[in-house]
Specification:
279 residues, alpha/beta, Rossmann fold, seven-stranded mixed sheet, SAM-dependent_MTases_sf, Class I SAM-dependent methyltransferase
Length: 279
């Protein structure tokens, strides 16, 4: 099996018992998604749904006619539906697929002692467009739920952060993910990008910082470059504004206040960006 995929499967397996501890994070993500539903009959697509510990599917079914869950790990999606008593729910659809489309090539790069420049060029070429996921889109609302950091982690495991072309590859994966999200949104629809960007493994005080000091504490972490590679909240926001290629396709762009995601043994700081696609 692809060793990069195995890493995600192990993470999903380990985080399954985290439903209770994820309540605050789940309530926050679910609330934002409910707010984005504008009319009856809306269809929601979630990229990187995994175990759905961050989605209250029963609440979301109150406002969405269809929910499409997309993840690399079919067993995680099946577990999610069983855990939320929705295994027989006809309005929830599961789709399994590699969100970058280059997972096998990245795994091949990870097996080589020296980075194959020709293979890397092929990967970058494939990443230059959207990933043509076989989904029944477009959708009224598309959400990416803490999957971007895992996609970047695949790049780290494939070539390493010291490789001369690591930044180029990481940026290509990030840009492709954004294009895929925007392309899946129907004109006039909405998007929500949720990303974890630092954990208590590198910021031990994260669990103890009181809520009223949380934003200031995170600013200090970011200033000291204590965050996951490629997912600094400011950089994530910049992918949809200014002179970025996608800026002309979106409007009503908003950075949401950061919040916590408690996974029991670890706690994460999470950033959220919501926007609309220009009609």
């Amino acid at each position: 099996m692809n060793p990069l995929f195995e890493e995600e499967f192990r993470f999903n397996q380990a985080s399954r018992p985290s439903w209770e501890s994820s309540q605050q994070h789940r309530n926050t993500v679910t609330r934002y998604l409910k707010q984005l539903s504008s009319v009856q009959g809306d269809r929601l697509c979630v990229l990187g749904a995994g175990n759905c510990n961050d989605l209250d599917l029963n609440q979301l079914l109150q406002v969405y006619d269809e929910i499409h869950l997309v993840d690399l790990d079919q067993s995680a999606l099946e577990y999610a539906l069983e855990a939320q008593n929705l295994s027989e729910e006809s309005a929830v659809f599961c789709h399994t697929g590699d969100l970058t489309g280059v997972g096998e090539q990245l795994a091949e790069l990870s097996r080589k002692e020296d980075t194959s420049q020709s293979l890397l060029d092929e990967v970058l070429e494939e990443l230059s467009g959207s990933n043509p996921l076989e989904l029944p889109g477009p959708f009224d609302v598309v959400c990416s739920t803490c999957i971007l950091s895992q996609l970047v982690l695949q790049v780290i495991h494939a070539v390493g952060e010291t490789d001369p072309r690591f930044e180029e590859l990481m940026q290509a994966v990030r840009a492709q993910h954004y294009r895929t999200i925007v392309d899946l949104i129907t004109p006039g629809g909405s998007g929500l990008i949720v990303s974890d960007f630092v954990s208590s493994e590198s910021a031990a005080d994260l669990k103890q910082v009181p809520d009223f000091q949380f934003t200031q504490y995170l600013s200090q972490l970011l200033s000291s470059r204590n965050f996951f590679h490629g997912v600094h909240p400011g950089i994530l926001l910049s992918q949809l504004q200014g002179k970025s290629p996608l800026a002309k396709q979106v409007y009503n762009l908003e950075m949401l206040p950061p919040w916590r995601w408690d996974l029991g043994m670890r706690q994460y700081a999470v950033a959220g960006i919501r926007f609309e696609r220009i009609p």
